Amino acid sequence: MMVGTWVDRRNLRLECQSHLGHLPAHLRRRTRYHLIGWFKREGVAVIREERSMSSDTLKLDEDIRGRKEEGKPDEGKESGVQRERRYVGADRPRPEAPDKVTGKTLYIHDLTRPGMLWGKIKHSEHAHARIKSIDTSRAEALDGVRAVLTGYNTPEVRIGFLRDNFALKRDKVRQYRDEVAAVAAISPEIAQQAVDLIEVEYEPLPAVFDPVEALEPSAPLIHERDALGRPREDNVLAMECGHESGDLAAARERARWIAEGNYRVPVIQQACMGTAGCIAEFDARGNLTFTGKTQIPFLAQKDFNQALKAMGLIGNNARVVVPALGGAFGTGLDTHCYEYITILLAHRTGRPVKMLMSREEEFAYLSPRQSARVHIEQGIDEDGRLTHRKIHVLQDNGAYASWGATFPTVMLLPVTSLYKVPVVHYTSQCVYTNNTYCQAMRGYGNPEVTWAIECNLDELAEQSGLDALELRKRNCNEPGEVTPMGGKVTSCGLMECLEVTGKQLAWEEKRPASQAARASDSVRKRGVGLASLIHVGGSGRIYRSDASGIILKVDDFGNVNVSYGGVEMGQGLHAALSAAIADGLGVTPDKVFINATDTATCPWDVGTHASRGAFMACNAALLSIAKIRERLLAFCAEGFAELLRKNIQTLSKKDASFEPPTIDIDAACRPDNFDILDNQVFLRDQAHEPWARVELGKVLRAMHFRQGGDMLTEPAFYDPPSDLPDWRRGIGNMSATYTYGTQGVEIEVDTETGVVTILRMVSALDCGTVLNPKALQGQVIGGIAQGVGYALYEEVKMQEGRITNPSFTDYKIPTAHEMNFPIHLHYADTYDPEGPFGSKGAGEPGLVPTAPAIMNAITNACGIRIRSLPITPEKVLAALKQR
Amino acid sequence: MNPFAYARATNLEDACQKMKAGALLKAGGIDLLGRMKRGTLHPELLVDLGSLDKMEGIDDLEGDAANQAGWDLGALLKLADLAAVDATTHPALAGLREAALNTATPQIRNRATLAGNLLQSPRCWYLHDPEVPCESKGGQGCPAMTGRNEHHAILGYDSCPVTNASNLAPVLCALDARLVYRTVEGKQEEERLHVLYTAPGKKTGFSTHRVPEGAIVTAIRIPRRDLVTAHVEIRHKKSYDWPLCSAAVALRLQEGKIAEIHCFLGSVAPTPHRARFAEGLLMGKKPGQEAFAKAAARELTQAKPLSEGAYKAKMSQLCLTRALEEAWKRAKENQR
Fold this sequence. Notes:
The structure holds 2 protein chains of 2 kinds. Chain A is of the alpha+beta class. In chain B, the strands form 3 sheets. In chain B, strands 4-5-8-6-7 form a 5-stranded antiparallel β-sheet. Chain B has a 4-stranded antiparallel β-sheet with strand order 9-10-11-12. In chain B, strands 1-3-2 form a 3-stranded parallel β-sheet, with no helix packed on it. Chain B has 2 domains: about 1-50, Uridine Diphospho-n-acetylenolpyruvylglucosamine Reductase, domain 2; about 55-120 and about 165-335, Enolase-like, domain 1, CATH 3.30.390. The chains are: A alpha+beta, B alpha+beta. The interface of A and B includes residues 755, 817 and 818 of A.
C-alpha cells in the first residue's frame, strides 16, 4: 500500500495495486528506491508523475472530476483489445526527435538524384492580362538549359477541384503569380538566369481586387468560361454551402437582445519552417515517382495520374513519396502548379527535376490562407439563451479555386454547433478576383467564423449586461445533443473548459474590475477575455471515403513495421501511433518502425487534415492489432507449451537452485491465459515467473519456421462512423466526434501607443484521453502562437494583387519574445467512445479561439471593439480615438 | 543568388587592397546577404572583414574631463556587445545600449556590426522586391506613393519615401558621433554621422549616405561624455521587427535649464530626422512635461504622411515626449 503515496492518486494508485499482487519475489519488502526503479522499468510510475499539475489545479480537477466520474466508460475495451496502458498517456519523446535534433533527418531540401536538373518558373508580371507572345529563344540558347516550357509547347494540364487552373497559362494570366513559362537547367542559378531571359508581351486587362466589386455586374470576368467551356456570366464560384433551420422571424421576435456586426479576417501565410519543394522522375516505362511536400499522397496520386493522362501517358502511374516535412499547416492539402510543372520538365528532359521554393517565393507564389468577411447577427432571450444565429460569409477566392473556396463547408460546424443555438441561417459566397488564390490552413474556416461568433457573443453580453462567461455557460453544448446540422455530440467537456478557464483567469473578480477601471486615468489598462471552439475530433468527412488504411508487419524479431498513408509533418503523429501500437500489441515503442509515407507501399488514406492523424491512424492500428493478437494467441494455444518446456530446460541448466514448476503446463496454455507485454508473451496466471515468459521474437520464429508456417502481416481499413454532409442544405454528422475547448487571456493595452501585451493565457481543451502530454503541449502552444499571430500580427499585404511583404522582415509572425507569457494548460476529463483509447483530434484547435479571446479582453480593458484582424497598434489607437 | 567570389581580409591594409570595382565589403552580412539572396544586389566579390578583431572593441579616447574625451566604438563591434555595455558608469551610453538591445533578434545582434547597422539599406518593401520597378532601382516612379506605405516616411522625403532602418543611428546622431573611415587612397577621414546621411533622390543618385565608395569604416567616435541620453521606441513586435517609431534624446542640464539638447527621430524619414523645432523650443528653457509635449507636437506638425502613415505622426510625437521625459529624469539622477 505504501507505493500509492508516491504516485498520482487519480490514476496510478490502482495500477500499482494490481501490480503489487504480482511483485517479483526478489523485490518484496525492498526499499522504496528499488520499487520505484522497478515501476519505472515497467513503465508505470513515470506516466502519471509527469502528468501531475500544480497542486491547486489538481484540486480543481478533482472538484470537476467528482461530478463526472459516473458514466465514464470502461477503459481498455478499445476495439476489443484488452490492454494495460504503458505508453499511451506517457510523456515520451517522439520517435523521430533524435534524428531531427541531430540534423540527420532528410527534408526535400537535402534530397538529390544522379543527373538531376533544377526547375524554375517564370511568373506573371500582371494581375490580369492577355498573353500576346512569349519569346523563349534567349533562354533556350543559354548553356546548361535543358528545357524551356510554356503553355504553348506542352499538353494542357488542368488542375484544381473546379478544373479552372492550368499548370502553365495560355492566353491570359489572372494573378501575379501565374506560371507563364518554366525552365530546367543543370543548376538553380542557370535556371534563374534563363527565366530572366524569357520575354513575355502582355496586354493588360481591367482587374478587380475587391470581392464586393467583383460581384458587380460591370466587374471584369476572371474566367470567361467554365471547365466545360460554357460561358460564365459572373465571378461567383459554382459552390453552394449554407444552412437553414428554424423560423428566423419568430426567433428575432423572441430575442430580447440582438447584436450584429461585420467581421473581417485577412489573408495570412502558413509560414512553415520547411519551405515547399519536390523531385519528379520518370522510369523508362513512363511511370512517375514524385517526392514532395504533401499531406494528401493518395489524392495527389489521383491528380498526377490525371496529369499523366493529359500528357499522353495513358494508364501510367504516379507514385507519391513524402519526405520528412518541416511543417505543412495545410499547404500540402492541394496539388500545386509548381509540382505539375516539375513533372512536365522531368518528362520533357527525361531527367529527374527538382524544384525548391525559397522563403520569398513561398510567400509570393504559393497559396496562403483565405480571407473572409463575415456578417453576423445573434440574439438571446430574457434568460440569456441564444435565439438565433444568422451568418453570411463572403470570401475573396482569388483567381483559381483551391481548398480556400471550401472554407464555408468547415465553417458550417461552428456556425451551427458552437453553443446550443436553435435557429441558424447561414449563407456563403465565394468570388473570383485577381488576387492570389488561397488554400487551406490549420483550422480551415473555423477560426475565421469563430472570430465573428465569439466577438459578437461578447457584444451581446455587453448589451444585455449578462456576464460573458455566464452567457456561454447557459448555452453550453453537452453530450447527447444533436446540433442543427445533425452533429451528434458524443463526449463534450466544454462546460469544464469554460469553468477552468474562468477560475484560472480569476474571471469573477477581474472581469468586472477591469470594466470598472476603463474610465480611469491610467495609460495601461488590463482586461480578461475568453472564447471557445468546436472542431471535428473524429476526422471530417469531406470526401465520399474518409478512411485510413494501415498495414502492420511483424517480423521474426518482434519488430513491428508500420505502413500508414498519413503524413507526419511535425505534429507528433508517429509519437501517438507508436505508443498506441506498443500498448495495443504489447511491445515496447522502440520495436515500432513507421515507414516513409509512400503510395506504393502504404494503403489508401484520404490525407492528413481535419485533426485526424492520430485518431485515424491509431483506430486503424487497433483494428489490425486485434487481428494480429488473435492469430498469435491462437498459435500459442498450440505451440506455447513446447516453448515453455524449452525455457524450463534452459533455466534448470543455468541455475542449480531453479525449481521447475509443478503445475500442468499444457492445461495452463489455454487461449484466455496468454498475454503480451513489453515484447514478451506470458501466461497471465504465472506472469512474473521467469519460466512462464517467452520473448515475442522467439514465439514468432516458432510460428514461422514450422511445417505450414505463418507470419503476421495484417492490413486494416478504418472508416469512421460519420456522414458526408449535404453541403447545400448544411446537414450531416460530418465527424465521428467533436473536440471542444476554451481559451482565456489577460492582456494589457498601452492606450497611448496602442500596443497590446499578453500577460498570460489559459487553454482548456476537451480532446478526450491525452495520448502524449508533451506532444500535445507542443500542438496546443504551437497553435496558440499561430492564434496570437492571427490576432495581433499577421497579414499578407497586397497592392492590386501583388504581395508587398513576401518575407519575414515584413510579414510578422510571433517570436519567442511575443510568446513570453505563462500558458496554463488544462485537458478536460472526457473519454470518447469512438476515439482510440478515448481520445479525440487535437491538431488544429490551438489557434481557433485565440483571436476573439484576445479581442474580448481588449474590450474588457478599454471598451473598444475592432472587427478586423490583425489588431495592430494603429487600429487600437484609431478605435480609442473614436471611442 | 548569383555566383560571386569571396576573399577574407587579414588586416585593414589587405582589405583595402582586395577592394575593387564590383566588390562589396562584408561584415556581419545581415543586410548584405539578404539583399543578395533576394536578387537586389549582385556583387562579384565579397571582401570579408569578419576576422579583423582590432575593430571589435570599445576604446576610451585620450583626454581629460575638460576635453570631454569620449569613446571609439569599433566598426565591427557586435550589437550584442553594445547591448551589454555598462550604462550605469557611462550615462551617455544608456540610450545607445537601449537602442542596441531592442534591435532585431538575439541571433542577429550576435552577428550584426555597428557600422553595418548604420549603413544598412533603408526600409521599403518595394525597394527590396526585385520584381517591382521603382526610381531608385533605375525604373520610373515610386510605387509606395500610391501603394502600401504604412512604414514609409512621413518627414524629410522628396520622391523616395524610404525610412532609415538603423535603430542605432538616431541616438548616435544625438550624441554627435563621427564616422571614422579609411578611403581607397588610404587616407583617414572623420565626418559627423548625421551629416553623412542623405535622403535618396535624383540628386544623390538614390544613395542614403555620403560615405565614399570603397571606403572602409573603422570606428564610430563619440567625442564626449557629458550628455545624458535616452532612446524610446514603440514596437508592434518585441523582436525581429523594426520599431514603428523611435526617438533619441541627448541633453545637458545647467542650473536647472537645458543647456544643450539634440533630438533625433527614427523610422519616420529617409535619414534620422533631426527634431530642430523641438530642440529650438527647449534650448535654454526649463524642462518640464508640458514643454516637452508642446515641443514634440510642434515637431510633428510638419509631418506629411502618405495614405497609411498618419498613425506615425502621433506615435512619433509620443516617442519624443517619452524620450525627453526619460532623458530629463536621467539628467536629474546624474546630477545627484
